[in-house]
Amino acid sequence: MDIIGLLSQEKGIEMSELGDRLLSERKRLALSQTDFAELGSVTKNTQFLYETNKRKPTGEYLMGVAEAGVDVLFVLTGRETPEAEASLAKDEKTLVRAYRTMEKTGQSSLLELASLAAAGTSAGAEVEHKN
Question: CA-to-CA distance for 64 and 72, rounded, in angstroms?
Fold first, then answer.
């Protein structure tokens, strides 16, 4: 079963509104159906079918539009992604995910490294500013 069918069946998510939320995200990003469809590697016709709830988007499509800034959590569930997570750049998200999977010693080491790197950057900025 696909993720959309699973959400619909297990979580009671109303899939008839998915197309409306997808359309809302497209408009938020100020993209045409053609441009938005390209982000998800589908045709304009397929995009139209998604937005009118005549067809369910695939995982590959959702991954493609997510890379362009679509709030996929909102599209699937109607709940917006919390701002703190949504505002992170891709490399920041990677760093946070890695940190969360580390054991405590790895987390401590990473925090120490980040503190040293930040202190070095601040010290370098102060020296430049004084000159």
Answer: 10
